[in-house]
Amino acid sequence: MNTTCIAVSNMRPCCRMLLSCKNSSIFGYSFRKCDHRMGTNLSKKQFKVYGLRGYVSCRGGKGLGYRCGIDPNRKGFFGSGSDWGQPRVLTSGCRRVDSGGRSVLVNVASDYRNHSTSVEGHVNDKSFERIYVRGGLNVKPLVIERVEKGEKVREEEGRVGVNGSNVNIGDSKGLNGGKVLSPKREVSEVEKEAWELLRGAVVDYCGNPVGTVAASDPADSTPLNYDQVFIRDFVPSALAFLLNGEGEIVKNFLLHTLQLQSWEKTVDCHSPGQGLMPASFKVKNVAIDGKIGESEDILDPDFGESAIGRVAPVDSGLWWIILLRAYTKLTGDYGLQARVDVQTGIRLILNLCLTDGFDMFPTLLVTDGSCMIDRRMGIHGHPLEIQALFYSALRCSREMLIVNDSTKNLVAAVNNRLSALSFHIREYYWVDMKKINEIYRYKTEEYSTDAINKFNIYPDQIPSWLVDWMPETGGYLIGNLQPAHMDFRFFTLGNLWSIVSSLGTPKQNESILNLIEDKWDDLVAHMPLKICYPALEYEEWRVITGSDPKNTPWSYHNGGSWPTLLWQFTLACIKMKKPELARKAVALAEKKLSEDHWPEYYDTRRGRFIGKQSRLYQTWTIAGFLTSKLLLENPEMASKLFWEEDYELLESCVCAIGKSGRKKCSRFAAKSQVV
Ligand code: GLC
């Protein structure tokens, strides 16, 4: 057994993965044995603030002992014992392997999240929740039951395979026993190829599938970080697997990425906030110190400290929450979201997003490149994509958070934010003919709480392309809103996700789809779909992208066409009862994707060329296509992935924080947006 896992396993290879253990005595040995590389005199304060450093590893084998899987370039992480005076020190990757092949790894990420958490403060003061790391709680060890490799994933209660009938397409990875739980129709050759490629992109960690690599082009000798599992890229893969009745890989992914959360990473001596999820991770097989010929798998996350531009992966945590809900809805396995460590993971992400800063708006303030567009494109501030994902993640969390004394303030904060956020976006991000005309006639420099032009937008900013482009009916949410600045570009993901999550009003959602239909030649053309429209050109390109040669006009993030967006479009179309639109787009993609070797993106105004620097065999292109097909065939499953208007949210008063200075309560305004 040369690759086993962080596990307590009983003869069967990799039967269980132990994520967390509060009490070392459960396994009869002391964690302190692993602490040779770390200081033990960590103060409470330090411990509270810091998570962990290093990487997760797994290793099996015979014999008895401990191992500390710490990257020499990184520090180990620290866990608390039941006694603050003597903090227990743990290392990610510390494990004992016993002679019966049982292997135990104790992980601090989960260790600290399993200790007591306490909530302090209340919604209206700014610290609605603090999660303390404290020992002494009697928390059950968290265990993932492993499903035997090659064995069909044990269906959770209520789990339904898509349409029931199985079509074997030859599965080399053994996921779901090689079955495509597919439709009453013949699976096309293109789909068969796509499934094979998707399965070929699966990454194993300690013998279990944990994700899919971003791209697997055999001819690419410089994959950069495309050989990693990206959190956002895995979402369509996960959905394809889930819709095909395969939950194991998704569950593994969710739990392993949870382990990586709060890893302490630093860029030039500065660490990002606790709760941050990595942009990606890589499974590495490394030699074991002092054991000739033996190696082990480790998980090495990237929180942006290696990424080009050192961009912060703000969207990762949001996607993680969205995927967790999708997993629950599609498998019926409610047990996963109810776990202590999973609940804590959700809370850490929310705490990070809901922490107050200097911002005046309910939207999330981020730096450029913090989402799918992960390089300079002028989307710093409050870009729509992040807001739409934020809103979706809040809606998911509202459903998943277990309400008790320690979470009630957080839940209240989530509700408040949801209503404030939707009001803000619906009111200030929306443009259609009527609104543009209003902006055109704006007065500026209004000093009053009653100002109509609240953001002091100068009408001359309305770009000439927009005047001609905006259809009579239809509209969309602009890409970004900042003081005195509206970014009028159409960003597809944000608009689609606003439909899916009902961030837009029902009428706005309908109008967005009308606009896409009306502007089909610009937004879909030869390959669905434009990532944004229009491209930045000339001086704007020079100033905003910093003359980025990868983001030249109508290429890559700057107006390139990204087939992965097809699944989000499909979901939006199904929700708005226009599946025929999605079918049209899927048919376009199906005609070309396989022939073009599944490119990452297409270039030119109409998406006619394979992108200049586009990777081939890009996994989320493949998975996006398969997911679209599966969604169209199973609209009832699709309906579990979107949200309708929540009228309760419109009732909540966003003015709860303080009434002074407010003339009007937004509750009525929010309702009137819909009515
Ligand atoms: C590019 C994309 C990013 C994606 C990554 C891996 O950097 O901009 O969204 O996650 O490639 O595919």
Provide a brief overview of the structure:
The chain is α+β, with helices and mostly antiparallel strands and 675 residues long. Helix content is 35%, strand content 11%.
Measured as a percent range, the helix fraction is 25-40%
CATH architecture heading of the largest domain = Alpha/alpha barrel
**How many structural domains in the coordinates?**
2
Categorize the overall geometry: globular
The main sheet comes to: 4 strands, antiparallel
Radius of gyration: 25 Å
DSSP strand content: 5-15%
Class based on secondary structure composition and strand pairing: alpha+beta
Q: What's the end-to-end separation, in Å?
A: 64 Å
Mean pLDDT: 77
Q: What is the CATH T-level topology of the largest domain? A: Glycosyltransferase
Comma- or semicolon-separated keywords:
single chain; 675 residues; alpha+beta; Glycosyltransferase; four-stranded antiparallel beta sheet; 22 helices; binds alpha-D-glucopyranose; 6-hairpin_glycosidase_sf; carbohydrate metabolism
Helices and strands, with pairings:
Blueprint: E1 16-20, H1 44-49, E2 56-58, E3 66-67, E4 95-97, E5 103-105, H2 108-114, E6 142-145, E7 166-168, E8 179-181, H3 189-200, E9 202-205, E10 208-212, E11 229-230, H4 231-243, H5 248-260, E12 280-287, E13 295-302, H6 314-331, H7 334-338, H8 340-354, H9 384-400, H10 408-428, E14 430-432, H11 433-440, H12 464-469, E15 475-482, E16 485-491, H13 492-501, H14 506-518, H15 520-523, E17 532-533, H16 538-545, H17 566-575, H18 579-592, E18 602-603, E19 609-610, H19 619-633, H20 635-638, H21 647-651, H22 666-674
Helix pairs in contact: 3-19, 4-6, 4-19, 5-6, 6-9, 8-9, 8-10, 9-10, 9-13, 10-22, 13-14, 13-17, 17-18, 17-19, 18-19
The structure holds alpha-D-glucopyranose.
The site of alpha-D-glucopyranose (GLC) has 7 residues, from helix 4.
